[in-house]
Amino acid sequence: MIVKRIFDISSALVGLILLSPVYVVIAVLIKIKMPGGPVLFSQKRVGRYGHLFVMHKFRTMAVNHGGSSISVKGESRITPLGAVLRKYKLDELPELWNILIGDMSLVGPRPDVPGYADKLTGDDRLLLSIRPGLTGPASMKYSDEEEILALQPDPRKYNDEVLYPDKVRINLEYIRHWAFWLDIRIILLTLLGRKLDEPWV
């Protein structure tokens, strides 16, 4: 997957340079609209081979909210500005730095918080053989995940018993069908806001 890594590095570097004005605007807005906290939200996630790394995102929640790692649309801890950033995935832009330094890839399974990787057994642990991604087939299918969880009486239970196993299945299929053209297709579909259950078909 040398081609994949070269593409990741070049794309992340170009993205960081071209989007630098957007970074500045978002940072200023966060400081104005969400004072009293950092611009970035940094959290340990599980990366390739199960190694932990610190993933960076623009902060979208109130400081010291003490909430769950499962996000549900409409939660009070998500600020109005944060809701906009999350809707258009702008909060994810700092992850280009994680891609550049090798923690992540443009396309792959979304990096989980510690704990979920421990649930992977047998062939499912193949997910840990590649770098996690900024986007991927499972995150495309569940781009409205927060809305789905908001409709459930027990969001965490639904995530653990329904969403997470299906994401594992989809991401395993991605690994088994991987090709460079597939990554390009997933990136284009993500930019267009398209949703496909099986993007390799």
3D structure, described in words:
The structure is a single chain. The chain is mainly alpha-helical and 201 residues long. It has one domain (2-191). It has helices spanning 2-18, 20-33, 80-87, 95-100, 137-141, 145-150, 155-176, 180-191; strands at 40-46, 52-58, 105-107, 133-135. A two-stranded antiparallel ribbon has the order 1-2. A two-stranded parallel ribbon has the order 3-4. The mean pLDDT is 90.
Features:
two-stranded antiparallel sheet, globular, 8 helices, mainly alpha, 201 residues
Strand and helix map with partners:
Layout: H1 2-18, H2 20-33, E1 40-46, E2 52-58, H3 80-87, H4 95-100, E3 105-107, E4 133-135, H5 137-141, H6 145-150, H7 155-176, H8 180-191
Parallel strand pairs: 3-4
Antiparallel strand pairs: 1-2
What's a quick, concise take on this entry?
The protein is mainly alpha-helical and about 200 residues long. It is built from 8 helices and 4 strands. The strands form 2 sheets. Strands 1-2 form a two-stranded antiparallel sheet. Strands 3-4 form a two-stranded parallel ribbon.
Number of domains: 1
Radius of gyration, in Å, reads 17 Å
Mean pLDDT: 90
Contiguous runs where pLDDT drops below 50 for at least 5 residues: none
Count of alpha/pi helices? 8
Helix-strand sequence: HHEEHHEEHHHH
How far apart are the first and last residues' alpha carbons, in Å?
21 Å
Q: Describe the main β-sheet briefly.
A: 2 strands, antiparallel
Q: What share of the residues does DSSP label as strand, in percent? A: 5-15%
- Sheet with most strands: strand arrangement: 1-2
SS elements, strand count: 4
Helical percentage: 40-55%
Sum up the overall morphology in one term: globular
The helix/strand class is mainly alpha
